[in-house]
Q: What sequence folds into this?
């Protein structure tokens, strides 16, 4: 029990840490106002439920007394003769109740989307800033790493905002319902003598005992569902990720005839879904046996307990039905945990995944401060006491110091695995493992990796990335495509396709070179940027860059010989950066 209570407290604390930033953000007054309005409307629905219990009592008393006049009046407006306040008719109650319920739901949806928009933006900014998304991808098995960040942002945030509002409002409504009906139940219950002891308001104590036993048993039976729900969300995301991998790499899989291997992988991942789902089914079945029985018995239990007073003449039929209704309201409010348990289980798993993601992003952003430190100064590229390591600690470059002046092309060679691409990342300032410093020139720099990235959207967006389409004219893009020998694409600038799959490897690299022609950086870093092209085509592109970008210093990482006039050659060997020119 202590462990369960500790888990509950931790869950509430984590949920509050996720929810608090929005309600203290720049949108706090609108958010709080909407939330307060929803609470007020929900409380008004509770008030109308209270009124309905008294209407129900008067209506059934009129039926028992064969008073058709009063019964008909109660359908519209009842004016009692003894001078008390008039009882609203059923029509008025239902009309106002429907209006309140509709707008309570409408405002709830409004707050959901506003909150989801804000918190999604907040998570995206944290994930993308300080290269947190990149550091997470480098550390999948550490505290920095996290599985399926896409699912956590797209689905878990949606579920968190929706369930936070529904559960919190439901809890508040039930709390108000409890305090609204508990005194009524105490007053109308009368007293009972048990073992010579007179117990006033005995139906209230029965409801309390009934609900307490139900809550404890529900938790004991269903507590394993929290871990199972967490696991289910993970295996579902793993399966979807595998499907996305197949969708994004159809040609490579087809060329390898890898369909059978992918089928095995997908089947295994779905097997994890199926296996965990069966565990959820078995545990849910046990929980449902109890909760359904608990709910069904609750409907008849107050009638059975109150019948002796009815048969004794202490209460009329209306009083009996009122006791049943009020007992149901009190017992339902006290048993909120029983009915909400499945949703609480899912919510707890969602909160854990989001909180874990938030912690991983914080660790990843902190990790971006580690590794070789990047500064911008002067016009030369300088390494000072530069050490570059792998995540496992193995050193690729050890304490290298070197200055590379601008103007002269630089060719960096070395055996495979020596760390050329890792040095490329360190120069870009994104590698978090190592020490020392890299001083990059103050001018603009462009890094072209071996496999170019293509954003979703038009061909023009793919060519000018990361610039905005509106910042580059169509004529400039067409000229760049023609220069890199892709004139056939010039007429498709506005076509929206998955260009990373449609274009061949060589076409993708040509398009990336077109980006360099458009960007015209002060320093251009190429990491095997023409490896998918034949040697003559690669040579032509390098000559094109030298001709079109005379003011750009080109640093090329390559395995092949390049004919770059007056170039300076560097060789990267294990733990050494040697100047061989």
A:
């Amino acid at each position: 029990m202590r462990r369960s209570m500790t888990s509950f407290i931790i869950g509430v604390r984590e949920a509050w840490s996720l929810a608090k930033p929005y309600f203290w953000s720049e949108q706090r007054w609108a958010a709080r106002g909407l939330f307060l309005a929803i609470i007020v409307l929900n409380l008004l629905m509770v008030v109308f439920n209270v009124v309905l219990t008294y209407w129900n009592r008067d209506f059934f008393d009129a039926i028992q007394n064969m008073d058709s006049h009063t019964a008909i009046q109660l359908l519209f407006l009842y004016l009692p003769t003894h001078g008390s306040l008039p009882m609203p008719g059923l029509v008025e109650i239902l009309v106002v109740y429907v209006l309140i319920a509709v707008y309570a739901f409408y405002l709830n949806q409004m707050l959901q989307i506003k909150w989801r928009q804000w918190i999604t933006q907040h998570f995206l900014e944290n994930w993308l800033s300080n290269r947190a998304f990149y550091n997470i991808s480098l550390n999948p098995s550490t505290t920095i790493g996290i599985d399926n960040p896409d699912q956590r942002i797209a689905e878990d945030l949606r579920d968190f905002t929706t369930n936070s509002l529904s559960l919190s409002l439901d809890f508040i409504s039930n709390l108000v319902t409890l305090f609204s009906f508990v005194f009524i139940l105490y007053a109308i219950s009368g007293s009972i003598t048990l073992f010579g002891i007179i117990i006033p308001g005995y139906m209230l104590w029965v409801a309390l005992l009934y609900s307490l036993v139900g809550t404890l048993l529900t938790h004991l039976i269903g507590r394993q569902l929290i871990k199972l729900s967490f696991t289910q969300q993970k295996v579902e995301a793993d399966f979807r990720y595998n499907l996305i991998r197949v969708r994004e790499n159809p040609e490579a899989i087809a060329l390898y005839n890898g369909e059978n291997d992918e089928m095995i992988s997908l089947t295994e991942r779905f097997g994890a879904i199926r296996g965990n789902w069966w565990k959820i089914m078995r545990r849910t079945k046990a929980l449902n046996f109890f909760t359904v029985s608990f709910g069904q018995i609750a409907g008849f239990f107050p009638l059975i307990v109150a019948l002796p007073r009815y048969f004794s003449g202490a209460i009329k039929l209306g009083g009996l039905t009122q006791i049943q209704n009020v007992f149901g309201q009190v017992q339902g409010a006290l048993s909120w945990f029983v009915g909400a348990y499945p949703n609480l289980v899912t919510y707890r798993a969602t909160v854990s995944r989001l909180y874990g993601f938030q912690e991983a992003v914080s660790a990843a952003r902190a990790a971006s401060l580690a590794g070789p430190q990047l500064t911008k100064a002067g016009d030369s590229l300088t390494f000072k006491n530069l050490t570059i390591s792998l995540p496992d600690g193995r050193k690729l470059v050890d304490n290298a110091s070197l200055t590379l002046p601008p103007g002269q092309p630089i060719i960096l060679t070395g055996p495979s695995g020596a760390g050329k691409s890792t040095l490329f990342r360190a120069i870009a300032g994104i590698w978090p493992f190592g020490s020392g410093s890299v001083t990059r020139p103050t001018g603009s720099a462009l890094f072209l990796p071996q496999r170019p990235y293509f954003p979703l959207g038009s061909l023009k967006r793919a060519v000018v990335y990361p610039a905005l389409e509106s910042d580059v004219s169509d004529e400039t893009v067409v000229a760049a495509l023609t220069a890199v020998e892709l004139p056939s694409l010039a007429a498709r600038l506005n076509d929206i396709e998955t260009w990373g799959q449609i274009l061949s490897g060589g076409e993708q690299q040509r398009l990336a070179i077109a980006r360099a022609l458009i960007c015209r950086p002060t320093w251009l870093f190429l990491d095997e940027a023409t490896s998918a092209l034949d040697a003559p085509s690669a040579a032509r592109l390098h000559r094109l860059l030298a001709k079109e970008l005379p003011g750009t210093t080109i640093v090329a990482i390559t395995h092949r010989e390049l004919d770059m006039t007056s170039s300076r050659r560097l060789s990267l060997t294990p733990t050494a950066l040697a100047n061989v020119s």
